[in-house]
Design a protein that fits this description.
- By secondary structure, this protein is α/β, with parallel strands linked by helices.
- It has a domain at 1-82 and 212-325: P-loop containing nucleotide triphosphate hydrolases (Rossmann fold).
- It is built from 10 helices and 12 strands.
- Helix 3 (109-118) crosses helix 4 and helix 4 packs across helix 6 (157-169).
Length: 325
């Protein structure tokens, strides 16, 4: 299967007065045509900055300082701003967590969607309007003709997010980066959106990077999963294998803290401590202070290893004996 995107040793740092924040530090992964990759982790793990880096949207004082981002063989880190304008929205689209990062509050929905179509394709305004209407129907917005004439403030937060998702689907891009796009949606609409993006991936070969902290969504959506912690991928592999038999203690802790996995009457499991500041990471393994398996060996930086076919991990003490082969 041809790779739509290959990220190699990506590094994105923020140069602040307090010091250098290594938000993304040596991240590598690839995603093929029609595949869904889940990027999961706690807040400040670097997953959103990874998505922004792929689209060239890291603002000062941050910047991509190393690595390659190959989209269909083309290194995106070498693009000019004019070349980026042709790529964003048409070939690669992003769905932001906050829909108001996508929508202009003073323009009607039809104006914004039609302009998005006309910016990349030479079609009539009538055809562009029809495409916009179809996209609203796709994401479950009722009365699409009426909604096209509305302004963003006339929508609820969840409805605005559905419009933002519809805009991302307009050009049927080769790659969609979704940054927790269903957080504000109810379960029914969330299921509908997930069905539509899966259908798009199957039928059009669109690749999807789904950034989230919701393991339940990833379990039913993704083909592969990358677990991030403190700017690095600590575990990677097929989603069923990773969630059924996690190797990294951090992945095991994330899965164990899901409320549905706890027994009634018992306290919820949790990972002790807090994510360390990226300004002052501890030496060696960044998860060491919170890890129940840590020892003196963890004072060194763990290298990326492949203990199982298709699995990658950064850990000196993985849960290898717990995995069912």
């Amino acid at each position: 299967m041809a790779a739509t995107l290959e990220v190699r040793s990506l590094r994105a740092h923020f140069f602040t007065k307090a010091g250098v924040v290594k938000a993304v530090d040596d991240v590598s992964f690839s995603i093929g045509e029609g595949q869904v990759l889940g990027l999961v982790g706690e807040s400040v793990s670097g997953k959103s900055v990874t998505g922004f880096s792929i689209l060239g949207l890291v603002d000062p004082p941050g910047r991509v300082v190393g690595g390659e981002i190959l989209f269909k063989g083309r290194d995106l880190t070498k693009l000019s701003e004019e070349e980026w304008r042709r790529v964003r929205g048409r070939d690669i689209a992003m769905i932001f967590q906050d829909p108001m990062m996508t929508l202009n509050p003073v323009l009607r929905i039809d104006t914004q969607m039609i302009e998005t179509v006309l910016a990349h394709e030479k079609v009539s305004e009538k055809a562009a309007r029809a495409r916009a209407r179809e996209a609203l129907v796709q994401v479950g917005i009722p009365s699409p003709d009426e909604r096209l004439r509305a302004y963003p403030h006339q929508f609820s937060g969840g409805m605005r997010q559905r419009v933002a998702i519809a805009i991302a689907l307009l050009h049927r891009p080769a790659l969609i980066i979704a940054d927790e796009p269903t957080t504000a949606l109810d379960v029914t609409i969330q299921g509908q959106i997930l069905y539509e993006v899966q259908k798009l991936c199957r039928e059009m070969g669109t690749s999807l990077i789904w950034i989230t902290h919701d393991l339940a969504v990833v379990a039913g959506l993704a083909d592969e999963i990358c677990v991030m912690y403190a700017g690095r991928i600590v575990e990677k592999g097929p989603v069923d294998q990773v969630l059924d038999a996690p190797l990294h203690p951090y992945t095991k802790g994330l899965i164990g803290s899901v409320p549905s996995r706890n027994v009634r009457g018992q306290k919820l499991a949790q990972i002790p401590g807090m994510t360390p500041s990226l300004l002052s990471l501890p030496p060696g393994c960044a998860f060491r202070a919170r890890c129940p398996r840590a020892d003196a060996a963890c004072l060194a930086e763990p290298a990326l290893t492949r203990p199982r076919p298709g699995r990658e991990i950064r850990c000196f003490h993985p849960h290898l004996v717990d995995e069912v082969v």
